């Protein structure tokens, strides 16, 4: 049995990494999925690979006009949105002395503002449909501080707070709001951030990732699919009495 039969989902940052795996899992489970991403060509490629139940939407979650246009396109095409996955996120590292106001604003605009304003855009339609479900993306970095990652960690801690507040505000509308806090997941996000591998400085990239994975209690970096499966659960009726929660999906990493 497919768990998301008849549902319409919009996944921000859906073109690659975790977002792409969620789009694929949702289509597999019977949903129609809007792959919404700032990288429009990549979103088109992902949607084409997923077949007729996926559509590409060019969307920059820091731009309210772009969010509104994208949401309207999905509502016009498929009648409404049942599931919003606020997966789009960016990461940057900087020691305190090198943090710039621009980087501070950019990470908050995408990771926190994008989450809030995408929710603001879909909630009226969810209310009209009598309910819905929002899944936000925090991180193990939102559970605890990390050296040289002050801004990203703060944004991901803020997402936990946004999740709790929106869950309480929207419960009366039948809209559940939860978050996922991934650990270390092997996606393109890691390919651009060498600083994360600092303690394995002289090893080649594949070896660095293997060593990062070995330090996880379950013994490997997570795959995007290992995040997508819990994202199916949270969107499904199996999670109908769960709201305001942030689910760690991290192989035990943040506890270790
Ligand atoms: P990724 O960089 O591989 O993919 C992120 C996607 O978001 C990209 O397709 C990108 O184009 C899109 N995006 C970025 N800015 C956008 C914007 N302004 N508007 C629309 N789309 C935008 O990242 P990922 O590893 O797949 O991460 C997905 C989510 O999971 C992020 O919120 C990230 O912070 C979180 N996360 C990732 C990890 C990890 O180890 N990979 C760990 C914890 C949390």
UniProtKB/TrEMBL annotation:
SMART domains: PKS_KR. It comes from the Bacteria. Keywords: Oxidoreductase. GO terms for molecular function: oxidoreductase activity, acting on the CH-OH group of donors, NAD or NADP as acceptor. SUPFAM superfamilies: NAD(P)-binding Rossmann-fold domains. Residues 7-183 form the Ketoreductase domain. InterPro entries: KR_dom, NAD(P)-bd_dom_sf, Sc_DH/Rdtase_CS, SDR_fam. Belongs to the short-chain dehydrogenases/reductases (SDR) family. This is D-sorbitol dehydrogenase (Acceptor).
